[in-house]
UniProtKB/TrEMBL annotation:
Chain intervals for the UniProt region annotation (Disordered): 1-71
Compositional bias of kind Basic residues: 1-48
Organism: Cricetulus griseus
Record protein name field: Uncharacterized protein
């Protein structure tokens, strides 16, 4: 009887650990998703900034009559 009880307890402990690990994994996945969203926003901002910078450069060049400016 004692051995059986011990085995049962061990199994219960293992199941608890498994559940804890599962919960941790779920939390990590959620965090990763949030990070990805932030990265996408940053990329968009960079692209817009780059475009506006290129645009202002071409405009100023065409203003001074240097280069092709805006085609």
């Amino acid at each position: 009887k004692k051995k059986k009880r011990k085995r049962k307890r061990k199994r219960k402990e293992k199941e608890k650990e498994k559940e804890k690990k599962k919960k941790k994994k779920k939390k990590k996945k959620k965090k990763k998703k949030k990070k990805k969203k932030k990265k996408k926003k940053k990329k968009k901002k960079k692209k817009e900034l780059h475009l506006s910078r290129a645009f202002s450069k071409t405009v100023s060049l065409s203003w001074r009559g240097e280069g092709e400016g805006l085609k």
